[in-house]
Design a protein that fits this description.
The chain has helices spanning 5-33, 45-76, 84-104, 122-142, 151-171, 181-216, 223-236, 252-264, 266-282, 285-288, 292-314, 317-323, 327-357, 364-397, 403-409, 411-439. It has 453 residues and is mainly alpha-helical. It has a domain at 1-148: Four Helix Bundle (Hemerythrin (Met), subunit A) (Up-down Bundle), CATH 1.20.120. The protein binds protoporphyrin IX containing FE.
């Protein structure tokens, strides 16, 4: 089978889910401002919101990351992917699970775990597809032609171990007979938080550690620093899930442990961000902002820094009592998964697809347009959620307010989110068009200069 067939299949499927997931996000946002829109059972709010998160997190981001890693890792390891056939089997099995999820959720058939709503047997099919991915990656590592393992490979191996552990805890262990009440909440918050911290973070960082030096044509600032970040993330992250239950029904000491570990997360974040910015600093000036890829990686890294500073801040008891469960947290989640990890994945697709197609990107101009619209729209998107979240938090704390009044106060912020979200979707349509044209071979040959960069 032709080299990179599996990576190509996963990337193409992920882009279909990106547009579907975004449209579902828009319908969800519309329901906040126009509650009777799409008012039929299959599209009631809890179902459509769940569909948005499942499609965008697993159909788009998780799948795009798997595709990018199957392309990047063999290049770092100077070897071919262990098996393209296994990679295609992974793409088929994984997409069966996602399609099953997409049919089940509107029918109301789902689990009681946020981000883990995918019902059986489809959650078990995801686990099986993860085994296929892991075997392929580990066998490629075992057959590598280089001795030294670059930090992206460390993160990829870490992802394999952590995702296995985190996904089965959230989807299998939390559903076992006898697991209920506070214990179940503890397990599911462990899953929800670590789905970001130990699944999407290491996948995204593996990609960024490869792409930043590559796209800038500059060596990584510090290999030592990259290992500090890796080992601290691997020890610290697992302890932080309980910070979602501060002022909740869990032991006070467990809340304190989660707060302390949340603060220690600043160490790996500073290590990672210093390394990325240091690499930008060492790069020739004309390379730093040339084209969409370095720009996306730079803005993604700025959002990574902000997200990870916001996290410990939100874990302070006095701040938490205001922002917890409000729109603030939705803003925080979007900055991490859209602002950082989707920006990294999009940069990866802009970098990898021309190499898969054997020609340059169809249009650098459109890629830049996509970058600017998405970046400029993301600022008000996150901003209205944070400001609205604080307003909402104070309104909830005032016993004179009815819930309906607090909802009415949020109307301008919800309208703002809807408009900013619509702009992000327009930018993604430009992205998808550019990638389709590139796959169709409409880009210039690599030995010709692009018309505009
Ligand atoms: C790649 C892009 C995106 C990703 C990765 C993403 C991810 C997420 C996640 C993780 C949540 C759950 C947040 C939480 O529970 O705290 C969520 C909720 C939501 N998202 Fe997105 N999203 C994306 C784009 C969008 C867009 C463009 C819109 C609007 C047009 C949107 C609208 C919403 C809405 C309305 C909710 C529900 C918020 C609530 O319950 O109050 N999302 N999204």
């Amino acid at each position: 089978m032709k080299e990179h067939t599996a990576a190509k299949a996963l990337i193409i499927c992920s882009m279909g889910y990106l547009i579907l997931g975004l449209l579902l996000g828009l319908v969800t946002a519309l329901k906040f401002t126009w509650p009777t829109i799409a008012e039929f059972e299959l599209f009631t709010y809890p179902r459509i919101r769940t569909l948005h998160t499942n499609v965008i997190l697993f159909g788009w981001l998780f799948q795009a990351n798997m595709g990018l890693l199957l392309y990047i890792l063999p290049r770092i390891l100077h070897s071919r992917l262990f098996s393209e056939k296994l990679g295609i089997a992974l793409a088929i099995v994984f997409n069966i699970a996602i399609l099953g999820d997409i049919i089940s959720i509107p029918l109301g058939y789902m689990k009681n775990v946020e981000y883990g709503e995918i019902p059986p047997p489809f959650d078990f099919i995801v686990i099986f597809s993860w085994v296929l991915f892991s075997v392929n990656v580990l066998a490629t590592v075992a057959r590598r032609k280089v001795k030294y393992l670059y930090v992206s490979v460390w993160y990829a191996i870490g992802t394999i171990i952590w995702t296995t552990f985190v996904y089965t805890t959230g989807n299998v262990v939390s559903q076992m007979p006898g697991v209920a009440g506070v214990n179940q909440a503890n397990l599911t918050w462990f899953y929800i938080h670590n789905a970001v911290g130990l699944v999407f973070t290491p996948m995204g960082l593996a990609i960024a550690y490869y792409l930043i030096p590559k796209s800038l044509n500059t060596p990584l600032f510090s290999h030592r620093l990259s290992l500090v970040g890796f080992w601290v993330i691997s020890f610290v992250y697992v302890w932080t899930g309980a910070h979602h239950m501060i002022h909740g029904p869990i032991s006070y000491w467990l809340q304190t442990v989660a707060i302390l570990f949340s603060w220690s997360l600043i160490i790996p974040v500073i290590a990672v961000v210093t390394n990325f910015f240091g690499t930008y600093g060492k790069a020739p000036k004309d390379k730093r902002m040339s084209g969409a890829v370095p720009k996306l990686l730079l803005v993604g890294t700025i959002y990574y820094l902000f997200t990870c500073l916001q996290g410990p801040f939100q874990a302070i008891r006095t701040v938490n009592i205001i922002v917890s469960k409000t729109d603030w947290v939705v803003g925080h989640a979007h900055m991490a998964l859209l602002g950082t990890f989707s920006f990294y994945a999009i940069a990866g697709i802009y970098y990898v697809v021309p190499r898969l197609a054997g020609r340059r990107l169809f249009s650098e101009k459109l890629a830049n347009l996509h970058f600017w619209i998405m970046t400029l729209a993301s600022i008000p998107f996150f901003g209205v959620l944070w400001i609205g979240g604080v307003v909402q938090g104070f309104a909830w704390l005032n016993p004179d307010n009815t819930f309906l009044e607090t909802l009415r106060m949020m109307r301008p912020y919800h309208i703002g989110r809807m408009h900013a979200g619509a702009l992000i979707i327009i930018s993604m349509v430009i992205f998808i068009y550019n990638i389709i044209e590139t796959f169709a071979g409409k880009g210039k040959p690599f030995d010709e200069q692009p018309a505009q960069s």
